[in-house]
Design goal:
Helices cover about 30% and strands about 20% of the residues. By secondary structure, it is α+β, with helices and mostly antiparallel strands. Strands 11, 12, 13, 14, 15, 16 and 17 form a seven-stranded mixed β-sheet that branches. It is globular, with a radius of gyration of 25 Å. About 45% of the residues are buried.
Length: about 525
């Protein structure tokens, strides 16, 4: 009880520090923990979930993704794309204002020039934004008038609208950026539903409702409903769970092995003791977990298509997900493209078939004379249990398998440098187009200069990939995407493991908290009750 009271008192102190208002009703404060810490509130550096979530509460862009991953208006009311796919013209909504900010008194109206400044800032070498690549295909950005912005591409790229939904592309107040320089990271000014009230790094952050926010609900009521967002930074996930269990947090994102069996049954359902207090929400997440096989390796086993296919057929993905992940995730028995995208889940992949896997291994032995096929899988510690499961299953089909564990940073470097025969990896989509995944098989994307870590090369695949980039029609692209995914599966440079799911444990006091396949945190329409 003392601990709970102290937590509540700390929350109230943070929320009211500097305010002359009466204490905020706790039912209007949404509380969550970010165990990895937030490092910046500058959208030019919003490259990972912890920063993306916070920036999504403070900023807006031209367009955004809805819960179905459709690109919809954000601060742009409409847009037009030229027939050649090179020119995008955006009309801004009227009367959009930046948040009030002490240094600038009453905040001013957003203009097309502000978007030009914000997008060009991404490619400024002095800024060194990790989002610079989003603008790499942009030839020019022009403010036609106060409310019209024109972006001209160097070459057609049908997924460009999807790129613009990334938080990198948020509009910032130029005066604030110029005033604070590097310290803008902790002095943000956006147009979103909340603004930064207080940030004690590594301890807590408080965001307050932006009274200038432009959106209203269907009844005409101003959004957001919440008065504040309180974010703590407890690095220990077990402590995070205890805070949630005690009612001090409103939701937990994802699940940690330290408490997964406390919350979930082996079939992935919420345990009975939490049914009265918690809603379990699972949704497709645009992340494919896979093993990559480096095809430029001199190892005969890696060079053999027969053995690569045997590995794919040699373990039970459904059993792996059920017993090692409590059914969190979808067994990857189709292609590289995950469910949630138009071409995802269409291609037939590899089902568990121990007899066929053994036959393929025997055929490999007959063809090569190698009577003792052997492979090594390299992984990080977090995925050791999955790789050890695969190890035991593959030994049943006659493939001796070793598992090597590396720190994640070392593994990434070795993977990029082509030093690993087989590596555990994942691909989380940056934007909602299957091209994002299929870029892993394009030969001009060979690592270390691109994401093709397997060094897969196929002439037909490359032709289809390049053709798809010229097609503005999503339906036409889908047909080519399916053909490419089929080639990837047949040639087996990867071993798809599972398609991830986002998992949220949400207090029953919370309503209106939706998610999408990029697992965005949007609190604009969230309500709380006692």
């Amino acid at each position: 009880m003392i601990k709970n009271c102290c937590f509540l008192l700390l929350s109230l102190l943070f929320i009211n520090c500097g305010d002359t208002s009466i204490t905020i009703d706790k039912t209007t404060v949404f509380r969550y923990n970010e165990h990895a810490n937030i490092t910046t509130l500058d959208p030019a550096f919003a490259k990972d979930q912890r920063n993306i979530w916070a920036c999504n509460l403070i900023y807006n862009g031209l367009v955004k993704l809805d819960k179905n991953l459709e690109v919809v208006p954000d601060l742009a009311s409409e847009w037009y794309i030229s027939e050649d796919g090179l020119v995008y013209t955006f009309q801004l909504k009227e009367d959009i204002y930046f948040q009030d900010f002490d240094a600038f008194a009453k905040a001013r109206k957003v203009t097309a020039q502000d978007f030009k400044y914000s997008l060009e800032r991404l490619t400024d070498p002095a800024v060194a934004s990790p989002g610079a690549w989003v603008m790499s295909n942009v030839a020019a950005i022009n403010a036609i008038d106060e409310n019209q912005l024109r972006i001209t591409l160097k070459k057609p790229f049908p997924a460009f609208l999807g790129l613009l939904t990334m938080k990198f592309c948020s509009v910032v107040l130029p005066e604030a950026v110029e005033k604070y320089g590097n310290e803008y990271r902790s002095n943000p000014v956006g147009t979103g539903p909340f603004y930064l009230k207080r940030w004690e790094e590594n301890v807590k952050m408080v965001l307050r409702k932006n009274n200038n926010y432009h959106e209203k609900d269907s009844t005409g009521k101003a959004l957001p409903y919440l008065e504040a967002v309180a974010i703590t930074f407890k690095s220990d996930k077990q402590s995070e769970f205890l805070e949630y269990a005690q009612g001090n947090l409103d939701f937990i994102n994802a699940i940690d092995p330290s408490y997964k069996d406390e919350l979930l049954t082996t079939t992935g359902d919420l345990k009975a003791k939490y049914l009265s207090t918690t809603n379990l929400v699972k949704a497709p997440f645009l992340n494919t977990e896979y093993l990559g096989l480096y095809l430029d390796s001199d190892t005969p086993e890696i060079q053999s298509k027969l053995l690569r296919q045997a590995i794919n057929k040699g373990f039970d993905r459904k059993k792996m997900i059920k017993y090692l992940r409590n059914n969190i995730g979808i067994p990857a028995t189709s292609g590289l493209i995950p469910a949630g995208l138009p071409a995802g889940g269409v291609v037939s992949g590899y089902e568990y078939d121990i007899n066929e896997a053994q036959r393929l291994v025997q055929q490999y032995i007959t063809d090569t004379g190698d009577t003792n096929p052997e492979i090594t899988i390299t992984t990080g510690a977090n995925y050791l249990d999955l790789c050890e499961f695969i190890q035991k299953e593959l030994e049943k089909i006659g493939v001796k398998t070793s598992v090597e564990v590396m720190p994640p940073s070392t593994l990434r470097q070795a993977r990029s440098a082509g030093k690993l025969d087989i590596f555990r990896s994942s691909w989380i989509a940056d934007y909602p187009d299957a091209e994002n995944y299929l870029s892993l098989g394009y030969s001009k994307n060979f690592s270390p200069n691109g994401p093709n870590y397997t060094h897969f090369k196929n002439y037909t695949y490359d032709q289809l990939y390049e053709q798809a980039l010229t097609l503005p029609n999503a339906t036409d692209r889908k047909e080519l995407y399916i053909k490419m995914d089929s080639i990837i599966i047949n040639e087996a440079p990867i071993v798809p493991l599972y398609y991830d799911e986002s998992v949220r444990f949400i207090s029953k006091k919370v309503s209106g908290l939706e998610t999408n396949a990029v697992n965005m945190l949007d609190l604009t329409r969230v309500n709380k009750t006692n």
